[in-house]
Amino acid sequence: MIRPEQWHPVGGLVLEPNAMTAATMSDENVVVSAGPGAGKTELLAQRADFVLRTGQCHYPRRILAVSFKVDAARNLRERIRERSGPQLAARFDSLTFHAFAKRLIDNFRPALTGLNALDPDYRIDPDNRVARRQITFADLVPLALEIIETNAYAREGLRQTYSHVFLDEFQDCTSQQYRLIKAAFGQSAAVLTAVGDTKQRIMAWAGALDGVLRTFATDFAATSLPLYQNRRSASRLRRMQNRMIAYMDPAAVSPAEDLTGDGGVIDVLAFDTDNDEAQEVADLIENWLAEGTAPREIAVLVRQQPHLVAATLGDVLTDRGIPFRNDQESQDLTAEPAAALVFNFIRVIADDRRPDAYAELIRMANPMSASEDEAARFDSQLKRTLREARSTVRNPAFKVNHPAAWRHLVDEFLQLVSRPVLTALSPGYQQGTRLDDLIEQAFDAFSRELAIDGESVQALRRLSEADAIRFLTIHKCKGLEFEKVVVLGVEEQLFWGSDPTTIMSEFFVAISRAKHHLLLTYAEYRERPARATRRWDEWRTPHEQLLGFAQDD
Questions:
Q1: Which residues pair with 299 in a beta bridge?
Q2: What backbone phi and psi angles, to 5 degrees, belong to 525?
Q3: What's the pLDDT at 328?
Q4: Is the backbone of residue 211 left (phi > 0), alpha (psi -120 to 50) or beta?
Q5: How far apart are the C-alpha atoms of 208 and 174, rounded to whole Å?
Q6: CB count, 10 Å around CB of 471?
Q7: Is 220 helix (H, G, I), strand (E, B) or coil?
Q8: What phi, psi does 269 have (nearest 5°)?
């Protein structure tokens, strides 16, 4: 433990003055308004290191971070581990709102009574609620709110656990989510840090509060601090962002002298058809990969329905052997430890060149509470199981393209790891059928990818964040950044809606994910996909207003 005045940002970083102030607040709540690339995740990581290393968060109390997406929660958790090391990071809980609410329900479930009472083995279903037995994701926050508002024991237990609370991307907070935070930590000794960017408030359709950062500042007597520096994007991209800011929020415009330079690339490409678009974009992606750009640094963003809008591009990439993954289907899954364990096991036995997967597999599979002798025996047994599974897969008789053959090996491996170790991977696995459901989903995802070409390694690459190009909706890409970003289909038929502010905010989020190269495309004709069930306009019109921001001064 060190004194607060002895603390310096870890990693040799230099924080701008307001970021340094926010990171080192001792007992005051703070709300930080930060634009894209200003380093919101890094700020929270540095603040966590400060309060843990200086004893502001006294052991055994913990820090709670609540985010809106699984990716964002995981990225923050990994950043803390990188900055502060595993021992301090073990006292940091990074959860989504849904995960936070589920943890409250699991810990204090008997507090729910009447129509909201739940059995111990309740499960979560995407669509249907069944009395006592089953709830939906939409029920999680309301049920957690009921517990906190009506049960003093639960409320005080939560407050005794967490001395500091971080709220990430808080501009997207809904009224119920805000009520939950206020009921849990309002009028408490917890120190809260909220970060957000009103120019990126794109969750209005889901009930995001208007002006929630101001409301938070008032309700929690929080100091307001803006961050100005964009640490992500090259100068040309920052100038484009600044032109959009001048339209959306003139008071937040950066001085022109802060945005000089020739760094970065912005391309606007027009095409006759979506097939022409797919071939040209695939050529560019192929060149980027050949030049050394990692697949995880390339993203294709679509406002909605990437499985339809980007289908032609996906077909072309598949024909060229370039792995990609549609994050609309797999983003949340790959962030789950149980799914990661299944995928890493298959990687280790199917591919000779994955020492990273092997190391992670060994780390996750070993029982944490085992004695030294027990751990040694298990390690020997695990390595023997892996050798035997690898030998089985390499046998010519093994049916590589049959999911059932792989499922037998996966089941044997999971049985060896044991149920207690699996449930210990995440608090959410200790209640209901969540663990079993995730294992099924992981194997279903692998089977789906395996069916494309019968190649297990390629199937895993398409499921990987590191080995595949990522197709994301704009809502899914928040909080992420990439060297190369393609915004596919900047057309009036895709960027439409009754609220022009929402359209502008969404486009701003999309372009601000790019660090160096931004590519905007539009096509005059998009053939109706066979899977389309709703209206589909084949003839398209470029969105001149949005594309106009790409024109440098």
A1: 470, 485
A2: -140, 125
A3: 67
A4: left
A5: 4
A6: 28
A7: coil
A8: -120, 130
C-alpha 509 chain-centroid distance = 15
* pLDDT, average across residues 50-59: 95
In 10 A of CB 538, how many CB atoms?
12
Confidence band (pLDDT; 50, 70, 90) for 452? confident
Task: Name the token pair of 342.
Answer: 């299944």
Q: What is the DSSP letter of 254?
A: P
- Contacts of residue 324, defined as CB under 8 A and 6 or more positions apart, other chains included, come to 300, 314, 317, 318, 462, 468, 469, 470, 471
Residue 203 has pLDDT above 60, yes or no: no
Q: How confident is the model at residue 105 (pLDDT cuts 50, 70, 90)?
A: very high
The tokens for 348 are 């280790």
**CA separation for the pair 471, 91 (Å, rounded):** 34
* Helices assigned H by DSSP within 90-211: 97-108, 137-150, 152-161, 175-185
Q: Got the DSSP string for 496-543?
A: --S-HHHHHHHHHHHHTTEEEEEEEEEEEE-PPPTT--S---SB--B-
Torsion from C-alpha of 399, 403, 405, 408, nearest 10 degrees:
170
pLDDT of 58 > 50? The answer is: yes
Q: What value, to the nearest 5°, has the Cα angle with vertex 325 and ends 319 and 331? A: 175
For 342-362, the pLDDT digits (tens) are 999 999 999 877 788 888 898
Distances (CA, A) of 502 to 197, 302, 396, 495, 514: 14, 15, 56, 10, 20
Distances (CA, A) of 468 to 19, 188, 285, 324, 462: 34, 45, 11, 4, 5
- Please, are residues 196 and 226 in contact by the beta-carbon 8 Å criterion? no
Selection from 268, 235, 237 nearest residue 512 by Cα: 237
Cα 236 to Cα 254: distance, rounded to the nearest angstrom? 13
Structure tokens at 11: 């990693």
> Strand order in 92-96's β-sheet?
92-96, 62-67, 162-167, 191-196, 30-34, 223-227
Cβ contact 302:519 at 8 Å: no
Burial of 102 (0-12, 13-18, 19+ CB in 10 A): buried
Q: Which two tokens stand for residue 396?
A: 């010519």
Reported as a pLDDT band with limits 50, 70 and 90, residue 54 is very high
Q: Which residues contact 417 (CB under 8 A, 6 or more apart)?
A: 341, 365
Give, as one character, the DSSP assignment of residue 133.
Answer: E
Q: Alpha-carbon distance 105 to 91, whole Å?
A: 21
User: What average pLDDT does range 403-409 have in this prediction?
Assistant: 95
Tokens 């439409």 belong to residue:
496
Contact yes or no for 309/302 (Cβ under 8 A): yes
Tell me how many degrees the CA angle 431-437-441 measures, rounded to the nearest 5. Answer: 150
Strand partners, 473: 302
Element (H, E) at 223: strand 223-227
Sign of the CA dihedral running 374, 376, 379, 384: negative
Identify whether the C-beta of residue 238 lies closer than 8 Å to the C-beta of residue 490.
no
Average pLDDT over residues 471-478: 87
- Span 442-455, mean pLDDT? 90
